[in-house]
Amino acid sequence: MDTRILLVEDDPSIREVTAIGLGAAGFAVTTAADGVDGLDRFRADPYDLVLLDVMLPRLDGYEVCRQIRRTSTVPVVMLTARADTMDVVVGLEAGADDYVRKPFEVPELIARIRAALRRAGGAAGETSLLKLGPIEIDVAGREATRDGQAIALTRTEFDLLLELVRHAGQVLTRDTLLDRVWGYDYLGDSRLVDVAIQRLRAKVEADPAVPELIQTVRGAGYKAVR
Description:
Blueprint lengths: L3 E5 L3 H13 L3 E5 L2 H10 L4 E5 L7 H9 L6 E5 L4 H10 L3 E4 L4 H15 L8 E4 L2 E4 L4 E4 L2 E2 L4 H12 L7 H9 L7 H15 L9 E4 L3 E4 L2
Helix pairs in contact: 2-3, 4-8, 6-7, 6-8, 7-8
């Protein structure tokens, strides 16, 4: 069965070209032209991934993503012409797994979609329980707790935490994290890693301003403490 993608994009030319390109790559694409229609279509049928423009009529992409996250962990990739750091922060906070800057090439978008789908299907069959200080990670259940209290992590935040903890004590460069967590390393978008680390620290550290579990190694990358 073809992978089903919901594309929510208000620009008719981008919507058409993207849908044709994704269809040629073997994806089954459903389109919507605004946020309200996008949510209605998402609630009516199952999808494997959502491509979501940020600037949408009636309901913007951030709010659509928040509402999707209330009921689903389906991968969400944001499409944005505004790639300021704050836009990335807002998108990740809303629950997005990745973002693609406009204008984009369809082959790049397809690579990002496939990477997100691989992450969504990862960790199957694993049963280990990992620990990082007061943090416990149930790999098979894809859940993390701190002192017994559940931590609300997005799919990408969980994968990032898992990758760091699996290599506790080892410095992981931004390029390494891009490759292992997001599934690509050719774009060199280290800002995505930095913002995701910031959001992760806000959820797992006792004091995110003075991180004790996930440390920055200046000029090198990040590491989880042993």
